[in-house]
Amino acid sequence: MSKHLAAVLGTGQTHHASRRTDVSMGGLCREAIDRAMADAGLDWPDIDAVVLGKAPDLFEGVMMPELPLADALGATGKPLIRVHTAGSVGGSTGNVAASLIEGGVHKRVLAVAFEKQSESNAMWALSITPPFHMPVGAGAGGYFAPHVRSYIRRSGAPDHIGAVVAAKDRRNGSRNPWAHLRQSDLSVESVLSSQMLWDPIRYDETCPSSDGACAVVLGDEDTADGSPGSVAWVHATSMRTEPTTYAGRDQVNPQAGREAAAALWKQAGITDPLSEIDTAEIYVPFSWFEPMWLENLGFAQEGTGWKLTEAGETGIGGRLPVNPSGGVLSSNPIGASGLLRFAEAAMQVMHRAGEHQVPGARTALGHAYGGGSQYFSMWIVGTDKPGGRR
Amino acid sequence: MTDPDVAVVGFAQAPNTRQTYGTTNGVEMLVPILHEVLDGTGLTKGDIGFWCSGSSDYLAGRAFSFVAAVDAIGAVPPINESHVEMDAAWALYEAWVKIRTGQVDTALVYGFGKSSAGDLRRTLALQLDPYTTAPLWPDSVGIAGLQARLGLDSGQWTEQDMAAVAARCRTDARTNPHAQISGAAEVSELLAEPYLADPLRAHDCAPITDGASAVILADADRARELCARPAWITGLEHRMESGNLGARELTTSPSTAGAARAAGTDGVEVAELHAPFTHQELVLREAIGLGDEVRISPSGGALCANPMFAAGLTRIGEAARRIMDGSARRVLAHATSGPALQQNLVCTMEGHR
């Protein structure tokens, strides 16, 4: 437990789309920021510091874009930190912002994360081959497909589990007004008939490339207690990293993810995550990662995560609704995707998730991962103060 | 001013050189200094509660260079780790915050940059507004030249003042075994040199450097165990300015002044300033309010070795070293980022309390 409590006071996000050519990078960020500030009921003089997260600068072709964006981010005259921890960066951005309050340094902090993939070419950015490194060459799908194949072989999961996740997340996304893909008519059968891209990952089981931004306003205990609306108290945060490759590394169920989750549950005083977490926003860019992360996070025993998915327990109304927002499969502005998971978790326990609200949600998980399944960041937020205090 | 509950207890830096032959992910520079800084405190990697680094993908010419840098640690079992796409002085800031939350008691911070891998002046032009400014490719030396010219024309400094900064730094660097440039220098000799980019001569500009540095932080209890004379952090503040060069008054540094005021600079004996250009040291001294009694950058400063994304952290390490070796009681370190001193950090530290 940290020395000072922190809480989410407000969240905001953009409409996510393939090409937001109607706005600049600053305009994109500002859409999310203005919505988060309004949601929190705060104005610029209230903000002590800004934390900006995004994935590699090569995705937009700007070196440290927070420098030219300082005015748009409202950071001029204030402290700004730029976080970059690969695909988990959005989550790390939330965690670093929370730590500024938990460490007693600031009272109100604005966390912003964005990606404007249409400015450059992410496939190119990911395919530069430095000397002495194993080339990826096929983007993220080609990199992760063998991990999925290995999961299927190890767990004995039936072939349609990925399609169950994809159909569910896209249906959820159709209830989220901000989502990039809103496909209420997707079914397990239609997903299974979509084109195979990276065997065993089909087209409809793949995240889109999105332009988008997310912003979260966090405050200290006094500010949160005085907030006009509901808040989401930060109960626990964790981050873990392991190398991309080493002898004996388990890339399907990475040790860094297991240890990050264990630290998170311990910090929050949770002993049975499946019973004690009401909903989870988990970073699932390819459908099969839902059962894989359910196991990695400790919601299910190794090899059994797919059974929760198959039984419908991860849908809204199930035991553990996963990605009621539609998740990364419905919107993937890469650098912002992690903060969107964290923000959506907060929206659930603040009961501000609208049509994709999980009824009665009081404790929620936000999760992000990045690199070659080697960077993990997570938080738990709750309607009540940590330790059951009201 | 904050409660000095966190201290610097160790510092190491790689040789600062014009060109290393290692990879751009810094591993070859980092492995020796991570060992050195851990050995200096008697800690092992398993003892470190939090890791945080600073580096730039654009400098490395690839995405995720910091991911490969983690190979320098040997992060098995996994570590609690974060990274900033900034000078590692800001990684130290994140680590300082992390220790203050009470979640961890030690942190290892490192930064690295291999500037020789590309054309640094042009690469840094990509830090400018991508829609209106960067397409014109105003490079980093050119922008600093505009800043220097503004100060010269307004009478705020002279070319002699600028050369005097270079002469002092080079002379001081003679006692710094890690310096890239050093040697006795007379102002008149320096002024006889040709311009590199009018009004800047070569001595006005930091060299292009490959390098890395590392610092260990500890909370109050651990710091006393790990170090005879910890450098207690008494103030750590940073501020951002507009990214629009035309909207800034370039001959002053309000972000530095604001950070220094908030950190508290009374009684500072030594100040390590991250000034990649001679006139920027003059701007910084004015902004912080450093008088003639304060010893400025006794290491030779960034003008004698400027490893991008590590040089700011190195300033903190060099200043802390003066506390740890007992030669100063109260010190200040400064780090900068962005074109023409856009973003600035001030760290004050003191000895025995």
Automatic annotation (TrEMBL), chain A:
<dbReference type="InterPro" id="IPR002155">
    <property type="entry name" value="Thiolase"/>
</dbReference>
<keyword id="KW-0808">Transferase</keyword>
<dbReference type="Pfam" id="PF22691">
    <property type="entry name" value="Thiolase_C_1"/>
</dbReference>
<dbReference type="GO" id="GO:0016747">
    <property type="term" value="F:acyltransferase activity, transferring groups other than amino-acyl groups"/>
</dbReference>
<feature type="domain" description="Thiolase C-terminal">
    <location>
        <begin position="250"/>
        <end position="380"/>
    </location>
</feature>
<dbReference type="InterPro" id="IPR055140">
    <property type="entry name" value="Thiolase_C_2"/>
</dbReference>
<dbReference type="InterPro" id="IPR016039">
    <property type="entry name" value="Thiolase-like"/>
</dbReference>
<protein>
    <submittedName>
        <fullName>Acetyl-CoA C-acetyltransferase</fullName>
    </submittedName>
</protein>
From TrEMBL, chain B:
<keyword id="KW-0808">Transferase</keyword>
<dbReference type="InterPro" id="IPR016039">
    <property type="entry name" value="Thiolase-like"/>
</dbReference>
<dbReference type="InterPro" id="IPR002155">
    <property type="entry name" value="Thiolase"/>
</dbReference>
<dbReference type="GO" id="GO:0016747">
    <property type="term" value="F:acyltransferase activity, transferring groups other than amino-acyl groups"/>
</dbReference>
<protein>
    <submittedName>
        <fullName>Acetyl-CoA acetyltransferase</fullName>
    </submittedName>
</protein>
